[in-house]
């Protein structure tokens, strides 16, 4: 019995070493996690099925109450049996893959054992099936790590129960019963102990591998945070310069041979060279189109491993959060700038002087119009202040701000200005950034129709149109003024350009569309500015 136990341990040791060698492969490690990657399930099943069959072939032939070591078993006589380590493969498959995996491997191993024959063939066919199911049911115990019992102790216990189940089946199903009893008396204890130790040994190695993964993961997490700390201030640079500097950091810190940044399918930044092995880091803001992606190239495929991919995926998330944070700050500043410019434009002494002077002249001659102007001024100032505290408002609110502003302006310009609005009422509740339409109308007046002879006409159009095959709201502000370039030359100021840049950057942030303002302007004919609302 002792010699049989030693022989069994030798075979189990060889099989455990073989399983551990294969478990070092990327696909096996990806699947073997308790929350494993199901992409590799068929490889996992194939490996442990082959493993269980190999364990059967490399067993020890037992007949006439003795055993005879052999390098390979091809057939079993009707009066013989096999002492083997098949249980090890089936139990490991169930513990790592669950009931389904344990059942599939058990069925394959059982049918193979039945094909070899012997008086215990039926019992040895059924046993692996039940062992696989038993191990699969015990999988949750490994995931939860019951109380103070380690996974190694649990593995030994499951192996012991599985092998004991096989011995019980032999006693119940094998005929003649006397031979079955003699067989179990001979191989029962050595095989049960050897296979239980084999399952436990595998999980000793597996736990070592998990600790190694944890150590590598901790190192990668530290590296990701270190890189994120280096890249945070870089996002405050201009976008193209920022991604160029970040690409340099990624290339150096990740020991890559190349780092590239692409946007909308075209390469913006190239650092180093390309190879056949790369990993992508996508930079995006939630609910918006991807901003772009960094692609890191490595010299060897070994550098592209699951642990590194997980780390780089986390790093991509950190970079995206950094970009979103910096852009949020930038948008807050842009909104503040828009508010300041709007208030400066409307609250400057000339504007107030003109409005109040008009009110003064109307008090005696047109008291009702004077009262209306005061109401419009109050409404305009109130909406200006309320919009400055919001990131998004409805088109309806922005339109009301425009009408308050025009009421004040038109009282001074009189018949020299006409305003037309074509608005689809279904779109009035669409959200847009504040101070987008009103500054465009203001530009049309100050830098357009104010400098032309005759009646100035401004049109505001809000309607649905097709964009990339989908219906979206499109807002258009057009005038019949002198044209944008002529207006800039005559005004000798950059106010119009600053306002347009501010609006464009805020639309780009919220909708992610390159060049969101579509500007058509002809000298002496007028200007048309449009943008999409998604």
UniProtKB/TrEMBL annotation:
Question: Could you tell me which residue ranges the Signal transduction histidine kinase internal region domain spans?
Answer: 338-416
Where do transmembrane segments lie in this chain? 44-67, 88-111, 117-142, 154-174, 180-205
> Ranges for the Histidine kinase/HSP90-like ATPase domain?
438-533
Keyword field: ATP-binding, Cell membrane, Kinase, Membrane, Nucleotide-binding, Transferase, Transmembrane, Transmembrane helix, Two-component regulatory system
UniProt GO MF annotations: kinase activity
Q: Which Pfam families match?
A: 5TM-5TMR_LYT (PF07694), HATPase_c (PF02518), His_kinase (PF06580)
Topological relation to the membrane, as annotated: Multi-pass membrane protein
Q: What is this protein called?
A: Sensor histidine kinase
What species does this protein belong to? Paenibacillus phytorum
Compartment(s) of residence? Cell membrane
Please list the residue ranges annotated as the Signal transduction histidine kinase 5TM receptor LytS transmembrane region domain: 37-205
InterPro entries, alphabetized: Bact_2-comp_sensor_kinase, HATPase_C_sf, HATPase_dom, Sig_transdc_His_kin_internal, Sig_transdc_His_kinase_LytS_TM
Q: What is its main location?
A: membrane
């Amino acid at each position: 019995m002792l010699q049989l136990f030693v022989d069994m341990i030798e075979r189990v040791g060889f099989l455990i070493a073989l399983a551990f060698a294969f478990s070092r492969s990327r696909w096996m490690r990806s699947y073997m996690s308790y929350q494993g990657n199901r992409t590799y399930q068929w490889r996992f099943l194939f490996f442990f099925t082959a493993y269980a069959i190999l364990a059967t072939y490399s067993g020890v032939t037992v007949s006439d109450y003795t055993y005879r070591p052999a390098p390979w078993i091809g057939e079993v006589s009707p009066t013989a049996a096999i002492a083997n380590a098949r249980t090890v493969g089936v139990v490991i498959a169930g513990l790592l893959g669950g009931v389904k995996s344990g059942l599939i491997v058990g069925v394959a191993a059982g049918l193979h054992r039945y094909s070899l024959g012997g008086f215990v063939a039926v019992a040895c066919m059924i046993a692996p099936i039940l062992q696989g199911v038993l191990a699969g049911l015990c999988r949750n115990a490994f995931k939860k790590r019951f109380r103070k019992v380690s996974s190694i102790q649990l593995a030994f216990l499951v192996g012991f129960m599985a092998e004991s189940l096989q011995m019980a089946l032999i006693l119940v199903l094998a005929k003649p019963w006397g031979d079955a009893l003699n067989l179990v008396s001979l191989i029962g204890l050595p095989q049960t102990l050897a296979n239980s130790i084999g399952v436990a040994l595998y999980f000793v190695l597996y736990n070592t591998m998990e600790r190694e993964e944890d150590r590598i993961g901790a190192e990668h997490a530290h590296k990701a945070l270190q890189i994120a700390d280096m890249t945070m201030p870089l996002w405050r640079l201009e976008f193209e310069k920022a991604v160029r500097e970040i690409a340099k950091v990624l290339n150096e810190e990740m020991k890559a041979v190349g780092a590239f940044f692409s946007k909308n399918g075209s390469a913006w930044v190239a650092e180093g060279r390309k190879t056949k092995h790369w990993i992508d880091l996508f930079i995006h803001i939630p609910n918006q189109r991807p901003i772009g992606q960094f692609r890191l190239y490595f010299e060897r495929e070994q550098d592209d491993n699951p642990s590194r991919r997980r780390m780089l995926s986390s790093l991509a998330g950190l970079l995206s959060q950094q970009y979103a944070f910096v852009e949020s700050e930038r948008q807050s500043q842009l909104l503040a700038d828009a508010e300041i410019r709007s208030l400066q434009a409307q609250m400057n002494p000339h504007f107030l002087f003109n409005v109040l002077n008009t009110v003064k002249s109307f008090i005696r001659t047109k008291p009702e119009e004077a009262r209306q102007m005061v109401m419009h001024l109050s409404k305009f100032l109130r909406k200006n202040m309320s919009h400055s505290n919001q990131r998004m408002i409805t088109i309806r609110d922005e339109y009301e701000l425009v009408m308050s502003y025009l009421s004040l302006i038109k009282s001074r310009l009189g018949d020299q200005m006409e305003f037309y609005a074509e608005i689809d009422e279904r779109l009035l509740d669409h959200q847009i950034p504040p101070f987008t339409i009103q500054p465009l109308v203001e530009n049309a007046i100050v830098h357009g129709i104010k400098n032309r002879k005759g009646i100035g006409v401004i049109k505001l159009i809000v309607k649905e149109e097709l964009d990339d095959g989908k219906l979206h709201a499109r807002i258009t502000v057009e005038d019949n003024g002198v044209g944008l370039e002529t207006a800039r030359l005559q005004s000798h100021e950059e106010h119009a350009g600053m306002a347009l840049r501010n609006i464009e950057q805020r639309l780009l942030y919220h909708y992610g569309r390159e060049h969101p303002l579509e500007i058509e302007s002809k000298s002496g004919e007028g200007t048309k500015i449009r943008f999409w609302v998604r």
